[in-house]
Amino acid sequence: MYKTRKLIIDSFTDNKKLYHARKISLWKAWILIFTLGSLYSLPFAKEIWMNIMGITQDLNKISQKIPDFKIDNGQLQTKATGFICSTDNIIFTFDPKAKRKISDIAADAYDEHFALGITKKKLYLYFPQKMMNASFFQINNSFEIPYKNSKLDNVEGKDIRKIVRRLMKPKKLFLVSYIASWLPGTIVFLGNLLLMSIIATFVFSKLTRTLSLKFADIFKIMTFAAIPAVILTSILRLIFPILDSEILLLLPMLFVYMKALLPNLKVG
Fold first, then answer.
1. How big is the CA angle at 98 (ends 95 and 104), to the nearest 5 degrees?
2. From the centroid of its chain, how far is CA 183?
3. Tens digit of pLDDT for each residue in 155-183?
4. 143 belongs to a structural domain
5. In which order are the strands placed within the sheet that holds 122-126?
6. 147 in the same domain as 181
7. Residue 181 and residue 44: Cα distance in Å, rounded?
8. Considering the domain boundaries, does residue 111 fall inside one?
9. What is the rounded average pLDDT of the residues 114-124?
10. CA distance 7 to 17
11. Is pLDDT at 131 greater than 90 in this prediction?
């Protein structure tokens, strides 16, 4: 009986022996799938992390410009005048006198810009429409929080600056980014793995009459064949994010799979 560790080594050194992966328990294959999914998710996590870091840096810049104020009895109290501040990711409105229309604040959320507004009675946040269009889930692109009867009552300008400073922790932000990207990344990897296994099942069932493999056997062999592909894809996409992850994954995976089966295959 082949051991999992030996098959992992064979995926790099002796691909034809991956044919024995069909004898591995299915639960071991699933552990490997989730491990590979974790590696495959790293480039996605890095991309999310860089975006979050950019946003937190912009929030830090904005927080330094916010004047002293206090929210009292559901209304913003300050002697300062309003202003609009634009950064790479956020267009911020400080409007204590309610001179700007809410529709104008909402219109600031264009392309990849967030719109954030601190007004006399409410805090407004609008997400970019491009982000909403790309989102898998249909969610509202705007949030408004009235100061009255909320935890924002009695908040001061210095509290905002403290909160932003707490957010400026790269390691914690990367952990959050990784957690957020792990499930989608693993699902994408599993979907590609299943697709290649289904294609291989149909193709080789037509080509051969002597090699009898069930779908579960092909799925397990394909899982081990994916090891070099996942590592290669993850490294390259960490360095070059613009590369197509699916092409980088599928072609090497298919190549290793073919090398595993061809020595045992007699075409009929």
1. 75
2. 8
3. 888 888 888 888 888 888 999 999 999 99
4. yes
5. 83-86, 90-95, 114-119, 122-126, 142-146
6. no
7. 6
8. yes
9. 92
10. 7
11. no
Q: Which residue has the tokens 């409007």?
A: 95
Say which residue, 2 or 242, is predicted with more confidence: 242
Distance CA 131, CA 114 (A): 10
Within-domain flag for 2: no
**Measured in Å, how far apart are the chain's first and last C-alpha atoms?**
29
Residue 244 is predicted with a pLDDT of: 84
**Residue 15 is part of which domain span?**
10-44+172-264
Domain match, 151 and 219 both: no
Q: What percentage of the chain carries pLDDT values higher than 70?
A: 89
Query: Which residue bears the tokens 């193709």?
Result: 203
Q: Beta 114-119 vs 75-77: how paired, if at all?
A: unpaired
Co-location of 189 and 139 in the same domain: no
DSSP track, 5-16: HHHHHHHHH-GG
pTM of this prediction?
A: 0.79
**Which of 123, 155, 187 corresponds to the end of one domain?**
155
Amino acid at 34: F
pLDDT band at 137 (very low <50, low <70, confident <90, very high): very low
In a shared domain, residues 238 and 194:
yes
DSSP type of residue 23: G
The answer to whether position 166 is within a domain reads no
Closest CA to 212 of 263, 266, 255: 266
E strands along 89-235, which residues?
90-95, 114-119, 122-126, 142-146
